[in-house]
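User: Reviewer 2 asked us to show a designed sequence for the structure in our supplementary figure. I'm pasting the structure tokens here. Could you produce the per-position amino acids so we can include them in the response letter?
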């Protein structure tokens, strides 16, 4: 294990003190001790200078190898760190829907050309939801906006998320009040104007 500069200096001083005590014991008088004291001081001064000069380059050599502040404290962030935008993981899909409602234009067709009124037309839609999906299906909200009894066509509105469930229930409907019938979806759109007016059927 290497000896530090302070330990070397302490060893030199203790050696000089032992040397002085040996001289004082052998001389036995103050005059003899005074003759050797300047030589001891000069020798001590030279050895201290040599030790300090040898320790100075060692300090200079060790200073570049000291780890930096960032290496000793990797958890600390710089004061002026530039924020980075977080990116979504690859393969993630986002579905954005800004439509609150879905509008459907329906036509009711019976086997014996029976004509239903507005109330029965609405009940037939609720019956289709209940038969296909039970009480949960009957809980879907449906508004009848317009009904043409002569053509057995109606315009309904439902929440956008309920659209697929409603279309599935209408497709599975085969009977209502012991009468065979079906409900055809003529048009479907999140915009009311698209299903309310069709330019293909418009006549001047």
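Assistant: Here is a per-position design you can include in the supplement:
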């Amino acid at each position: 294990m290497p000896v530090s500069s302070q330990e070397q200096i302490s060893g030199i001083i203790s050696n000089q003190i032992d040397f002085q005590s040996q001289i004082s014991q052998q001389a036995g008088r103050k005059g003899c001790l005074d003759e050797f004291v300047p030589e001891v001081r000069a020798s001590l001064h030279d050895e201290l200078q040599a030790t300090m000069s040898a320790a100075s380059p060692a300090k200079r050599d060790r200073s570049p190898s000291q780890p930096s502040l960032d290496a000793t404290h990797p958890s600390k962030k710089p004061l002026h760190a530039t924020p980075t935008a977080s990116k979504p993981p690859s393969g993630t899909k986002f579905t954005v829907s800004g439509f609150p409602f879905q509008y459907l234009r329906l036509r009711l067709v019976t086997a014996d050309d029976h004509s239903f009124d507005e109330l029965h037309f609405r009940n037939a839609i609720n019956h289709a939801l209940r038969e296909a999906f039970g009480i949960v299906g009957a809980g879907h909200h449906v508004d009848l906006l317009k009904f043409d009894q002569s053509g057995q066509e109606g315009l309904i509105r439902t929440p956008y998320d309920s659209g697929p469930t409603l279309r599935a229930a209408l497709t599975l409907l085969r009977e209502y009040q012991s009468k065979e019938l079906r409900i055809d979806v003529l048009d479907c759109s999140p915009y009311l104007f698209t299903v309310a007016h069709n330019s293909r059927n418009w006549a001047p």
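For the response letter, you might also mention the following. Helices lie at 5-27, 30-62, 69-72, 118-138, 163-172, 192-196. The domain at 101-196 is CATH 3.30.70.3250 (Alpha-Beta Plaits).
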